[in-house]
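dumping this here before i forget
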Amino acid sequence: MTRRNAASERVRVRDWRAPATGIRIAILSSGVHTDFEVPVQAAGIDWATRLPREWFEAVDSRFDWIAFGWGDRRF
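structure:
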């Protein structure tokens, strides 16, 4: 498994193996802010119906991942 750090460099996690089943997610961090990225549709959940695109500005309808984020310098 690889992840990206604040400088967008790949970091290798040793001895990690993908499970036989499951849903691929991504965890991104800038060192201040952390995002969890999940597929827009997976395992019976359709985030496009729960968070309609018209609620947001400049959303590309071709995107198939959504990010949920948290963090600030004081956290």
